[in-house]
Every structure is written in C-alpha cells, then in structure tokens.
Amino acid sequence: MLTLSLATLFTLALLLGGGVWIAFALLGTGWLALTGFSSFEVGPILASDFWGASYGWDLTALPMFVWMGEILFRSGLADNMFRALSPWLNRLPGRLLHANIIGSGLFAAVCGSSAATCATVGKMTLPELERRGYSETLALGTLASASTLGLLIPPSIMMIVYGVVTEQSISRLFMAGIGPGLLLLALFMLYLVVWSLSAGRRGGAGHAEPSMPLGEKLRNSWRLLPLLALIGGILGSIYGGVASPTEAAAVGVVLSMLIARLNGHFDRHIFLESMFAGLRTSCMIAFIIAGASFLSSAMSFTQLPTQLATAIADMGLSPNLLLVVLTLFLLVLGCFLDGISLILLVTAIIMPLINAAGIDPIWFGIYLVIVVEISQITPPVGFNLFVIQGLTGKNIFTIAKATLPFFLLMLLAILLLRLFPEIVLYLPQAMNR
Amino acid sequence: MTFRLDPLYRLGAWGAAACMLSICALVTLQVLLRCLDALLKAVGASRLGLEISGVSEIAAYLLVGATFLSLAYTFTHHAHIRVTLLIGRLPPALRVWFEAACLAISLALSVLLVWQLIGLVRESLDYGDVSSGLMAIPLWIPQSVLVSGIALLCLALAEALLATLRQAVTAPSAYVAPGDDAHGGE
Amino acid sequence: EQWNLATPYGDASFHTQNTKAFAEDVAAATDGKLTINVHSGGSLISHAEIKPSVRRGTVQSGEVFLSILSNESPIYEVDTLPGLATSYQDAFDLWQASKPIITELFAKEGLMPLYAVPWPAQGIYTDFTLTDASQFQGLRVRAPNINTQRFVENLGGIPTQTEEADIPTAFSTGRVDAMITSVSTGNSMSAWDYVSNYNDAKLWLPKNIVFVNKRAFDRLDADTRQAVLDAAAKAEQRGWQMSKADAAKSAKALEAHGITISQPSAELQQQLKAAGQQLFEDWQARAGDQAKELVTRYRERQAQQSQ
Ligand code: NA
Ligand code: NA
C-alpha cells in the first residue's frame, strides 16, 4: 500500500515537474500504477475509461459556458460592468476585486460546474483587473476560490452525484447549499476588505476612481443591464421551466450573442474567434478530465483509495475526530483525484460510518461538496488551477499560492458549519413545513 | 514552429466547430419549442407537445467531436497546459532534450491510446453496439471520431518531436521553446 | 482469485445490498478462494459501459438494468411491456420463460447471466389525482425508455426525456408533469418534494441482471464455479424477497411523507390496458418468432400457476 502510494506520487510529480502536458501526465501515471501494481490488462481499461469520460449529456454544458465566456470577453460587457460597478465599490476596500467574488456567486447560480464558472468569469474579469492595476495575486486567488461556488450554489453537478448515489433528495441538497454558499461569499469578501485595509498604501487594491454624485452613479448603472439581462435570462429559462440546467448553457450562448450584437460588439469575426478560442479551452479541459478519470479508475483498480478509506473506517473515531481525519484524508486524495471520484469513493466506504455517527446526510453532502471545492484549487490536480493557467499562462503553483488564504477560509467555513449546522439545515428543513 | 500538416489540424478544428454549433442549435431549438408551448398554454390553447426526441442523446455524442477533434489544433496553439516552472529555467541546450522527452512520452501514450481505441471501435462493430437511448446511435461512429481526434494529435506530436530532435542535434543552444512567449495561443 | 463487479446502483439500493450479500456468500463458500469486490454507484464504470467492460474482461462481473439493452434485441424489452406481467408471480414466470433466450443472447457475447432481481411494479406519479386516462392529454410524462415513450404516446401524453438527476428541477419548474416508476425509486428520490399522488397501476416489473464474463467463469475450478452458481441462486431468491419487502417499506415511506397512494379505477385500468395491448402487439411484430416462443412459454407457466 505504501509502495504504491509513493510510486504514484513520485511518477506524477516527475511527469508534471518534467513539463509533460497535464493530461498526459495523468494518463501516464494511471498507466504505470496499473501495470506495476495490478494484474489487469491496462489497454482495455484505458480505452473504455477514456471513451466513457469523453461523452455525456451534462458535460455538454462545459463547452457551451466556455464559449459564452469568450463571447462576453469580446463583447465589451466586462468593461461596461466594471465601469458601472466601480463608482459603487469605490468606498469598499478591495474595490473591483469584489466583482470577481460577486460575479462568481451570480454565475454559480446559473452553472453547475466550477471549471465553467471559473472560465466564464475569469475570461471577463482578469484582463480588466490587470489593466486597472489590481494585485494579481488577489485577482487570481479570488477568482479560483470564488468560482468553486459553482458547485455549492445550486444547480450543482456534485450535489446531483451525491444525491443520486446516497438517495438523498436533490432539491433539499440544492436548498442546503445556499446558506453555506452565502457564508463563503461573505468570508471571501471580508478577507478582501481586511487585506485591503491592512495593505494600506502597499497598493494592489486598485485606484480610487473619481467619485460621482448619486444621480450619475445611477445613470452609469444602466451599463450593468445587459449582464443582468443575461443572468436573468438564463435563470429565467431554468426556473421558468423551458430549459434544464444543462440546456441553459446553450441558452446562455445564444443570449450572449444577442446581447453582444445589441452592444455593437458582434460580427462574423468575433463569432469565429470566440468559437475557436472556446474550442481550445474546452478541448484542453476535456482532455484533462479524461486523463483524470483514467487515473481515478486506475487507482480504484489498485484498491489503494479503498484500503485507505477502510483503514479510516476501522479507526473507531468519535464523530468530530472522524470529520477531522476524513478532511485531511480527502484533502490529500483531492490533490490527485477528481471531484466525482472523491464523492463516489467516500459514499461507498465512509457513508455507513457517517450514518452511525449520527451526522445528517444532507449536512455531510454539503461538507463533501466544500471539500471537493477545495480539491479544485489544490495542486497538482486542481481543475480551477488548470483553467486559470489556460486563461493567464501563469503557473499552477503560482496560482495555488495565490489561493492559499482562500483555501484556509474554506476550511474555516467547514468548522463554522460544524458548529452551526443550521446554516446548512435551515432551508431544507423549512421545506418540510 | 511550423506544422506541415497544419491544414489537417485546422480541418479537425472545423469539425469540432461543426459539432459544437450543432449542439447549440439542437438545444436552442428544443428550448424555443418549449417556449412556444408555454406561450400556447398561457393563452389557453393546448400544447403542441413538439419535443425533438433524443436531443440529449445526440448532444452527448456530438460532444466527443466538439472537444476531441480539436486536440491537435489545440496542441499547435499551445493551449494544452503543462508545468514549465522547472524546465523553464534550464539552459536551451538541456531544455531541448527535456522537450523531446516530453513529446516522446506524450506521443507514446497517444499511440497507445489510438491503438486501444481502435480495438474498442472494432469491438463495437463486431457486436453492433448502439447507444441505449431512443436514437440507438451506432457507437462506432462517435468512437471513430474520438480515434480521429487522437490520431491527429499523434501526427502533431510526431511533427513536433522530429523538429525538436533535429534542433537538439543541430543547434541545441539556439532552442526556443514554443509557446513560452505566448499563452492560450491567440 | 479476485473479481470486480460493477453496478450502477448506490449502496442504499436493495439491489446493491443483495449483490454485496452475494459477494459475501461466494467468499464464504470458497473460503476466500474467490473474492468479489463490488464497486457500487457507478464508481468504477458508468452504467452504459458495464456490459462492454465485462465482455472485454476489464471487470469479470457486472449488473445492469436489463431493459437498457432494448436497442440490442426486442427480447430485452419484455419486462417493460405494460400489462404483460403485473405481479411478482407473473414477473417470475416471465423471467423463467425468457431466461433461455436471454442466456443464449448473452452467450453470443461471451457472457453468462447469474441472476435477475425485479424492481417493484411501476406506477404513475402525478401532482393531481389520476382518475381517467384523458388526463394524459397534453401531459408531459417522463419516458426514460422506448416502451414508456410509446406507451405515453398511446395515452395521448407528451413523452419527455429527463435525466434522473434533473427530475426534481424538471417537476418543480413544470418541464415534467408526471413520471412512471416504482415506489422504491420514488422513495429514494424523495418524490414527495415535487409530486403528491401515486397511482399504483402495476404496469410492469423491470429487472436488474447480474452476469459474468464466461471466460473468467470457466477459468475457475469446478468447486468454485458451483459455489458461484449456488450463491447466485440464493441471491435471486433473496433479491425477489427484498424487492417485495422494499416495495412495502417504500409505500409506507411515501405515505408517511404525505403522498396519496391510490389504486386505478376499473375504467382507468381498462384504458391503460388498451394502451399497453397496442404496444404488445407492435412488439410481437418486431420481435418475431423468438418472441412468440417466449410468450407461449410464459402463458403456459401462467396457466400452470392458476391451476
Ligand atoms: Na451552481
Ligand atoms: Na486538487
């Protein structure tokens, strides 16, 4: 068990550090783990797993949302949004960096995946923030972490996976995610305010833009309208009953084209440019998803994660200690496995323990989603880091360093949820009445 | 670096674009029909009940083309990401060998993948495998698309490997890693 | 020897509990000479890839919902034909009658069925009281497979495709008005969150099937093979009991959460039967001689039962 863990770690580190493309590093590690530590024939597993990860209906939302981000990026909407927001946020320490967090929160309500949230919001905000002289570290950190809320604020792919395998009500899980989602948003914004205040003249918190009278502020705010119309349109299509959350992604593409057209920033050239840029990003992400899926399934075949999880199950821990150990275990595993594999692994082995410990399964679902969120921003396998590297060309370790404070805030959020479970359970319980 | 087969990779990208547009169009049509139904119901008429059956099934398999046909195109635009933190600090003469090794590993894995996936296609043909939904799509079709995408990537990797090796032998210290200056490949 | 068994259903499902018990029985009977690791919830392989993976030998054993194979042969549709078998006894006779043909079909792909376990009978979930088939007019009904789609069309409804995970949102936003599934599934999906009525129409009892790769099975020694077959026979028996028990338990849970369970009126039953009969005739035409043989065998068994 130890040899296998070390060999896997070492191979992955070697391949990634040596500059092998991430998808190939994952494929190669999975291949070595299977040939070295199992008696299975690797080829067929590779083929069927890669194939299995390459198609799927809910996955179609990802390229659509990525494409939408590329359209918005080219439509001048981001600039509009910042110009409309800046007079309002002028007094708030952190200024436009809050747009990253609020934007992610809003977009999270539209989209069920964190990679798509990250790609869409980042495509719009990062260049503008850089242009306006904001701290790069904070811009990257807020984006990477706030966009993980795509998983916590409904709709959410991860909650659906958890709900289906543990037979928990998906609508209740969705309701349960709202409180913790807002809590995380508040924590992130609070951190931003504190950082900016303490940074003082160190800079990086943006420049004060000339203050304007209320009337002008309001007049300026109409520029937000297109973006609000877009989000409203997507949400409306979901909750108005004309589109499923997956279909809403295509609605988003069409609406963003319309809005960009009305905004005067859309022609054949932009259409093609946005589409091919979208293709490149979604291809990059999809290839990594397939690689990560093969590595995860290779690990399942070697039984390593199962043995580790069983070892935890056999420790006979108290509920609180169980959660602590489980969190540590998942954080380590989350460095290597993708979110869905994490959830499936835990639910298959740890769930009886959770039930026995009297932990509410809805609460545990939210806890798991937050842990999965964290795994999206921990290197080497962290999808939000990959997406941001794709957007900015910054190294994933630089990006990971920028997200460190937010990583800690998410751990704090877990602690708060344990102390005040009502944050999770109030809304779903209110559904009973 | 120039790729001699670049037109081929672009063709792949256009194929991917066609798939992506089809997904978008199909889903949009479906949503528009539902809007129409909602309108009809609102004015008191009965629903038309037009549903394009199998949208989700078709889109699920179109996704294979939309994402994987552009593998090579994405590669030539340096949009596949990697960690260059360490190898970026190497002197060109050493870096070029590292690059060659990375390309060789990637090529080996791609060839393996293509080989195994061809086996998968052959099996699907032998057993006449079809998707389990209403459309009964023969699986060899999307599987062959996947194979084509990865085969294109093999070609691109092979081209890059050859060029890198040539450089390594002839003028290693003049090596400039592709994609280091730009990212995302505009 | 270690085997892997992949199942799409989660640990909370009685099917998975039964399959895990089967694995334990095998391990006990062979003194651990053959152990079977059950990978539940699609954690190793997704539903659609399970049969090809077993065929290829990637995993030695798998469990699938039998009627997802409907596109391969009409024979696999037999347990989703409305009205053909509507009780556990009928469903068992139907399984016995179709087993030889299914075994033959599986053998062509190098597979061997071990046992099959039914889901409880399928009924209709709505957010109104269903009294008459005319209420289906213009109703959006979730139709996960071809036969349900045709059935809904025959009743005048609009069959819609909804992914399982999308059901709660689809109901609460009006993209779907009704669904056809069992009390067990309704219970596990917390159907009371979005529907209020369940009509216990007992339309059909679909099955899960557990099967092995024949080569992997033949590699075992004779004793181990026998142990697997014995455990499978036991699992089948236990599974049918568990299904019945789960139906009763789930119905109670549904009622406890405020869902009204009603029996179809004689008139509604007649209308549902007519819609099903049409489907059955179409199926017989499509399925040909094999199907006729199967049905004859089934009717003979039924006749014997009623004597
Ligand atoms: Na979301
Ligand atoms: Na990670």
Automatic annotation (TrEMBL), chain A:
Species annotation: Salinicola endophyticus
Domain TRAP C4-dicarboxylate transport system permease DctM subunit: from-to ranges: 10-423
Complex and partners: The complex comprises the extracytoplasmic solute receptor protein and the two transmembrane proteins.
Domain of life: Bacteria
Protein's recorded name: TRAP transporter large permease protein
Record Pfam families: DctM
Keywords: Cell inner membrane, Cell membrane, Membrane, Transmembrane, Transmembrane helix, Transport
The keyword Membrane appears for this protein: yes
Membrane topology: Multi-pass membrane protein
Subcellular location per the Swiss-Prot or TrEMBL entry: Cell inner membrane
Keyword Membrane: yes
Transmembrane segments: 138-161, 173-194, 224-242, 248-266, 278-301, 321-350, 362-386, 406-427
Role noted for this protein: Part of the tripartite ATP-independent periplasmic (TRAP) transport system.
Family: Belongs to the TRAP transporter large permease family.
Automatic annotation (TrEMBL), chain B:
Protein topology in the membrane: Multi-pass membrane protein
Tripartite ATP-independent periplasmic transporters DctQ component domain mapped to chain residues: 24-166
Bilayer-spanning residue ranges: 12-33, 58-75, 96-117, 137-158
Record bears the keyword Cell membrane: yes
Coiled coil: none
Keywords for this protein: Cell inner membrane, Cell membrane, Membrane, Transmembrane, Transmembrane helix, Transport
Cellular localization per UniProt: Cell inner membrane
Subunit structure: The complex comprises the extracytoplasmic solute receptor protein and the two transmembrane proteins.
Family of this protein: Belongs to the TRAP transporter small permease family.
Function: Part of the tripartite ATP-independent periplasmic (TRAP) transport system.
Name of this protein: TRAP transporter small permease protein
Lineage start: Bacteria, Pseudomonadati, Pseudomonadota, Gammaproteobacteria, Oceanospirillales
